[in-house]
Amino acid sequence: MMARLKLNPAKMQLLVVFFETYLRLGKQEEAELATMIHELAPKEESEIMELYTSWELKGMKKGKKQGKLEGIQQGKLEGIQQGKLEGIQQGKLEGERLAKLELAHKLLAEGLVSLEKIVELTGLSKEDILNQH
Question: How many domains does the chain fold into?
Answer without folding.
Answer: 2
